[in-house]
Amino acid sequence: MMRSALYWASHYLLLALYVLFALFPLFWLVKVALTPNELLYSEGIRLWPSRISAEHFRFVLAHSDFPLYFRNSLIVSSATAVIVALVSGACGYGLSRFVFRGKSLLVALLLITQMFPLVMLVAPMFRLLAPLGLTNSLTGLVIVYTAFNAPFATFLMQSFFDGIPRELEEAAMIDGATRFGAFLHILLPLTLPGIAATGGFVFTAAWSELLFALMLISSAQASTFPVGLLSFVSKFSVDFGQMMAAGVLALIPACLFFLFIQRYLVRGLTAGAVKG
Amino acid sequence: MRRAPWLATTVLSVALASSATASAMTLKLVEVITSPERTETLRGIVKSFEDANPDVHVEIISLPWGPSFEKFATMVAAGDTPDVVEMPDTWLALYVNNGALESLEPYLKSWVHTAELNQRTLQLARVIRNTAYMLPYGFYLRALYYNKKLFAAAGIGAAPKTLDEFVATSKKISALPGKYGYCLRGGAGGVNAWMMFGALGSGSDTFFRSDGTSTFTDPGWIKGFSALADLYKSGLAPKDSVNWGYNDIVAGFYSGTCAMIDNDPDALIAISERMKPDEYGVSPWIKGAGGKSFPTIGYGGWSMFANSKHKDAAWKLIATLDGVPGNLAWNRRIGALPIYAAAATDPMYADTKFKGWFDELADPNVVPMIMPMDLRAWALFASSVVPRSSQSVLLGQLTVPEMAQQWAQIMTKAKQSQK
Amino acid sequence: MGADHDEGEAEPEVSATGRRLLRLAEPYFYSAPVLLLIVGVMLIPLSVGLSYAFRDIQLLDPFSGGFVGLDHFRELAADASFSAALRHTLVWTIVTVALQFILGLVLALLLNREFPGRRLTQALVFLPWAVPTFLVGLDWAWLFNPVVGPLPSWLFALHVTRDANNLLSDPATALIGPIVAAVWWGIPFFAITALAALQSIPRDLYEAAAIDGAGVFKQFRSITLPLLAPTIIITILLRTVWVANFADLIVVMTNGGPADSSQTVASYVFTAAFRRLDFGYASAIAAVLLLLLFAYGLAILSLRRRLLHRYS
Questions:
Q1: CATH number listed for the domain at residues B143-295+375-418
Q2: Same domain, yes or no, for C40 and C81?
Q3: What is the ipTM score, two decimals?
Q4: How confident is the model at residue B35 (pLDDT cuts 50, 70, 90)?
Q5: Is the pLDDT of residue C205 over 90?
Q6: Tell me, which fold does domain B24-139+298-353 have in CATH?
Q7: Strand pairing category for B25-31 and B84-88
Q8: Residue C297: inside a domain
Q9: How far apart are CA A187 and CA A161, in angstroms?
Q10: C-alpha pair distances (Å), C263 with each of B24, C213, C266
Q11: From B75, which residue of chain A is nearest by alpha-carbon distance?
Q12: pLDDT of residue B31
């Protein structure tokens, strides 16, 4: 298609602005993290310090359990993503393929869960989980995160399944396949990108969650990444350089992961053709 | 029948195993004012305790300071309580009045070091119900930090000694472009400054009249409050300082944005790492009406929970933390004033920067002021009401007498419900 | 496997009614895990939490818990901070969602064309979504801080602000900080959703329109917008509920201050619960918020039904 030079010029300009806007705050974190303490205030506003130093990173790595936090977050986020994919896939399938009594009640309940500030649940949840021994444990956290993410994931899954005509499975079942077999061999391959996309969203959400990780877990052994980072940035001391270095370290795995999966997010959502 | 010997062996081995583990005890220690350096020091002292008591293991839980208040409250409310906890002075009333803490009096009676503690230690330990519910590890006394470089640039020779000199000094420094006289703490933790200035205006540190009503509405207190508010309103403090917390005022000081802060000796550590010794000084807090000065005194300490299952071991842990070597190591890290009378001669305190505080303690006209932290409602008042209402005053949305009236009402009610 | 294999089985056959019952029960089996999870982990604690609204629950006072009826709600009605919080919530929600949507949609439109470097560009502009929200808040708070951040002096140099002070300390501008941070973080979500929806519009529609002589804007108005409308409208409306409940950035960046000038209802719940430790009052505030959003949700559902009706 023929487009004017003006069109393309403004196209690239706008994109450049977006990229700048997206990356600048992250660039600033890195810049301050690399600025040695003596220059932090005198060169506070320069775009790049006159001398860079790795002292903050060295300090953070020596004084924190970042590998442990990273491992805990990885366990919790992966487990949550997998379990959510399974249970929300099942529920989304049920909502998509069946009409049953109580369906609208179920949908209403799922919607209600999205409507209130989660902070209200902290105290009652603590009281409920403590006697079950699920506080201070990664298992408890996975259960909580799964419940939080399941409703949104269910709606996503439902829309993916809605996009595949029912006739395909029904044809397979007439030929002798069970419903589960039809799901496995027909529906699943077609919606796999969408399911993977949902898993990606859930993983990212579980990775960044702070409030419940902070309130439900007190031992360092079970702390996740955001909690570890919080200890660093709200400790009783004044150190912007260290805080930002901790922030940069916390971001690297999340950003790398997201860079990798974002392409599949778009593809997956498109394949599922997110319809109203 | 054939299973019986097997069963018996199993039962016996289980019994043996559990009795073996019964003698290995685990104590839970929670620290709340956490930083990597403090945790490291704490671990060292705890290790010496474990070495001396091989059958006891101590699990240290370090809460990030920012959300520590709510995090610890949530833990306690759900029954996840420690044996020993680091207790900031502002939290004490809350936990004592809910019956959570164990009295340390019986242990102090038989402790060998009790006699070596300086007089203030026990006085402050007993501030609630005249019973020691915690054993302090150190004191935080306010003094005046000032930036010598900025003073020189403004042509000021010495640190101000009175409120009038303070205001005059601030005016001269604020005349320098981009500089301000006072690093005001308008956000969290600003209550100390309000109390100090109020007392300067009133000439006394009495918070309540004999009938239990608050003195905040007295003209003297209002004059003191107004002096602080005017510092901000006449531009002698940075405009952003209305929202400043601890980190911001210390950063403001060592970045040379404002020339004076009121703070405790623990800020010395952060400041000495970023400023050269000849760039700043510490001076006793300023005097006001009647030639008296009222720097606030606070403390941190260790408390034992009343539901601890290992009270004797918990006391031994506290005794180690607050024992002579432990306490000195701890205070060297955190920079608080010592609890032992003899420690004043330790080389760390002989450092000239600490001289400001020891001068204060030696001066009869300096009266360390204990804020009414024994009131159950104080924690909420200091952390919620004061920042909100004082910010309204600084921003011109509320007048000082109105604020004083609000505060007096709350304080009077708190005092009367405490009876 | 199918009906054919039933003959000759050693086990007793499942009766016809049995099979019908199983088939009727099927959807319930599929929905059971999610239902159990949300009832157990969210709805039961929610009901307990809501019941606190009618009781005096001080977190640390084991003797509190007495029934106080509508006292908290009466206090709420008279609470000036709460009415201010309601106003701020409106501003916060509407501005944030509007900006997230518009900027996200424009970005999706820009990314919907093939051009060299598109994959890399897409990856980079979606990055903000990967940052944990409290780190977003801290990062932007540092950017707005005159001591360690560049924005105050740049905004002053560009004559956008009157001085080089911290936006977050001025009650008139305090809410702008969290809004900017929320927009920065939320654009990728809208962009990804919109891009997916855009890419499902068949290309030939555009080609046909181009052949008919329609320009870029005309194509947008007559093809893109109508086909996108149902998805986008539902996304916006759902997102609005989410943003209204979103307190992290405000708590981290301004704590609702100075003097409650950036407090929203959601952040007020947090403050009441965790600073005042008054869970009864916090629950009352949350109950009001829940009620408002519930009414809003009902409106969404009826709108969704009408849209589906019109476009299917």
A1: 3.40.190.10
A2: no
A3: 0.85
A4: confident
A5: no
A6: D-Maltodextrin-Binding Protein; domain 2 (3.40.190)
A7: parallel
A8: yes
A9: 8
A10: 50, 51, 8
A11: A215
A12: 94
Q: Where are the domains of chain B?
A: 24-139+298-353, 143-295+375-418
pLDDT, one tens digit per residue, over A200-218 is 889 888 988 888 898 888 7
The structural domains of chain A, ordered by start, are 1-53 (no CATH), 64-271 (1.10.3720.10)
Tokens in use for C162?
């009157």
Q: Do domains B24-139+298-353 and B143-295+375-418 have the same CATH topology?
A: yes
Tens place of pLDDT per residue across chain A (276 aa): 456 788 888 899 999 999 999 999 999 989 989 988 878 777 777 888 888 889 989 888 887 777 888 889 999 999 999 999 999 999 998 888 888 888 888 988 888 888 878 888 887 887 777 777 777 889 989 999 999 999 989 988 887 888 778 888 888 888 877 777 777 777 888 788 788 888 888 988 898 888 889 888 877 788 888 888 887 776 656 678 888 888 888 788 778 878 877 777 777 666 554 443
Q: Where do we find the tokens 């506003």?
A: A45
The model's pTM: 0.85
Q: How many domains does chain C have?
A: 2
Burial class (CB in 10 A: 0-12, 13-18, 19+), B311: middle
All partners of chain C with 3 or more CB pairs under 8 angstroms: A, B
**Is B191:B391 a contact under the CB 8 Å cutoff?**
no
Per-residue CA distances from A154 to A195, B179, C42, C231 (Å): 10, 57, 16, 16
Tell me which chain A residues have a C-beta less than 8 angstroms from the C-beta of B36.
59, 63-64, 232, 235
Task: State how far the Cα of B193 lies from the Cα of B171, in Å rounded to an integer.
Answer: 19
Which residue in this structure is represented by tokens 């602005």? A17
CA distance B144 to B323: 30
Are residues C88 and C33 part of one domain?
no
Q: Provide residues of B within 8 Å CB-CB of chain A.
A: 33-38, 40, 59, 61-67, 71, 74-75, 77-80, 246-247, 250-251, 254-256, 270, 273-274
How do beta strands B297-304 and B135-141 pair?
A: antiparallel
* Cα Dmax for chain A: 77
Q: Where in the sequence is the domain holding C239, given as residue range(s)?
A: 71-311
* Residues constituting chain C: 312
Name which of A13, A87, A115, A209 to mutate to probe chain C: the one with the most chain C Cβ atoms within 10 A of its Cβ.
A115
At A22 the pLDDT is 95
Interface membership of A37 toward B (CB under 8 Å): yes
Nearest-angstrom CA–CA distance, C25 and C39: 19
pLDDT at B21: 45
Nearest CA in chain C to A265: C192
Determine contact, residues A118/A148, Cβ cutoff 8 Å.
Answer: yes
Distance from C-alpha of C53 to C-alpha of C280, rounded to nearest angstrom: 5
pLDDT in tens, B211-233: 989 999 999 999 999 999 999 99
Lowest mean pLDDT among B247-251, B390-394, C41-45, C302-306: C302-306
